[in-house]
Amino acid sequence: MKVLGIETTSKAAGVAVVTEKKIIAEYFLETSKYTHLEKLIPMVDRILKDLDITLREIDGIAVSVGPGSFTGIRIGIACAQGISQALGIPLIAVNTLDSLAYNLPGRDLICPVIDAQRNDVYSVLFTWEEGELRRIWDYSIIEAGTLLKNLLDLGKEVFLLGDGVDKVFNKLENNNNNVNLLLIKKEGLYSMPRASSTAIIGLKELIKGNVTDCFSIKPFYMRKSHAEEKWEEKHGKQKFT
Q1: Which of 4, 33, 117, 197 has the fewest CB atoms within 10 Å, measured from its CB?
Q2: Taking the model in full, what pTM does it have?
Q3: Phi-psi region of 19 (alpha: psi -120 to 50; beta: other; left: phi over 0)
Q4: What SS3 state is found at 222?
């Protein structure tokens, strides 16, 4: 089986192809601007050409559905939907926080942290058990200082990664408070969601038969967009279109 992974939920866009044995190709691009709309299709085209395969040889498309950049999420899903509808390839929706955690296999406690703007972050807590990722805390939007306190209260080493990590550590009152935390800086390769991790999760779900189609796949936003919030402030809680 071959699965195409698509990741566009952060400033780092990526595509990857994996099989049941290994990652056979991955392209990763991080820029200062969100250029996913113009870069994504050429990246997909290039990775297929370099592998000398076609989309008809892809068994499933795993796409990161959030949380993360609202625009990035929509671009990735739209691309996956277009390919799926044209060729009938099944889709697998992958939570971006899950994908981040897959960057660090085998760690005892992993806390992916994605910037949710203002003072908040999207986060969750995982552990690995017998080669499978198990969720300890549910997905949440949480104030960065509150998350830090909750992690310190565990009294255990926790691996943090993601573009919201600095926001959490900025809440430290002094450097001695982080003795139980290992910071993985956002500049590191592991700190951004990777298409290969998305594809690996997608492959596992495809084998289990946990797939969807181009009409059923949905974003996992976790909160309303700023535009929707401003609309409701002005018009009340009517439907935003």
Answers
A1: 33
A2: 0.89
A3: beta
A4: coil
Beta strands in the chain (DSSP E): 2-7, 12-19, 23-30, 60-64, 91-94, 110-115, 120-129, 132-143, 158-161, 181-183
Extract the runs of DSSP E, i.e. beta strands, from 70-150: 91-94, 110-115, 120-129, 132-143
Q: For the chain, how many residues are written? A: 241
Please give the pLDDT value at position 175: 54
How far apart are the C-alpha atoms of 12 and 86, rounded to whole Å? 26
**Amino acid letter at 195?**
A
Average pLDDT over residues 178-204: 79
User: Could you tell me what percent of the chain has a pLDDT over 70?
Assistant: 84
Q: β-strand 91-94 against 60-64: which pairing, if any?
A: parallel
Which class for 91: exposed (0-12), middle (13-18), buried (19 or more C-beta within 10 A)?
Answer: buried
Question: Could you give the CA distance from residue 199 to residue 39 in angstroms, rounded to a whole number?
Answer: 19
What does the block give as tokens for 146? 């509150």
